[in-house]
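In response to reviewer comment 3 from the previous cycle, which asked for concrete evidence that the modeling workflow produces usable outputs, we include below a single protein chain processed end to end. The sequence was submitted unchanged, and the resulting structure tokens are shown without manual editing.
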Amino acid sequence: MNKPLLATLAALVITGSGMAPAVAAQQSGGGAAKTAPTVKAVDFAGTVALSNCSGSVIRFPASADSDPALVLTNGHCLETGFPQPGQVIVNQSSSRSFGLLNSSGSQVGTLRASKVVYSTMTDTDITIYQLTRSYAQIKSSYGISPLTLNDSHPVAGTAIKVVSGYWKRIYSCNVDGFVYRLKEGGWTWKDSVRYTPACNTIGGTSGSPVVDVATGKVVAVNNTGNEDGERCTEDNPCEVDQNGNVTVREGINYAEETYQIPACFTTGNRLDLTAAGCVLPKP
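The workflow returned the following structure tokens.
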């Protein structure tokens, strides 16, 4: 996993190079006669820094400005520890804090959770927190809007950016493809996103939103990578196809799709795992 960042790892990485925030999406050049593809400016606005991970303030296509705001990160970033295989946590009390970032990556405020709405590392790797403020209140206080989750499946070849609020760094690459089953230690994730090599994410980037640069919407949440070339061990996920064949890709990183999440939330950003079309694992 692009694991929650331990102090020793932080010290090791900080002494290395390349930690300056990356530049947001660049404009395409070329002559006026050419029609450049539409590109949204992807920056840090709406992302958050956790104590050990990255995340983002997110909304669904049907969310209202008056709804309680939500933060998305990884299941393995949960402050009470990794959910066990098969475990699903809902409506667990939390007062966790999040550093809210503006477009340049500066922290402009602190947000606080009221509860863990949903958390699991089964089939996917997500934690969703409910905050004590609404989207409208956050916008009024800080001028920051949430990121919107796309409710359709991502497409191979899509240009994406992985935006880490922890490191204040943006990685740019493409969706290389999809993994039938991604296994890491005792956990298995379904239909994971594989990045092209340019997204060489590291510890602390866990929970970063994966943003489609054409739409500006979140299509996945960054969660893991094969660090040492080992087979299906912690920090070394392996790909398993429909026939059980295993492939190990050292140095390649992955994310979990998020398009299936909106179907599990109803009016008022209320979790409803029995809603039609909701396929998230249930407790």
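The domain at 159-257 is CATH 2.40.10 (Thrombin, subunit H). We consider this sufficient to address the reviewer's concern, and the full set will be provided in the supplementary archive.
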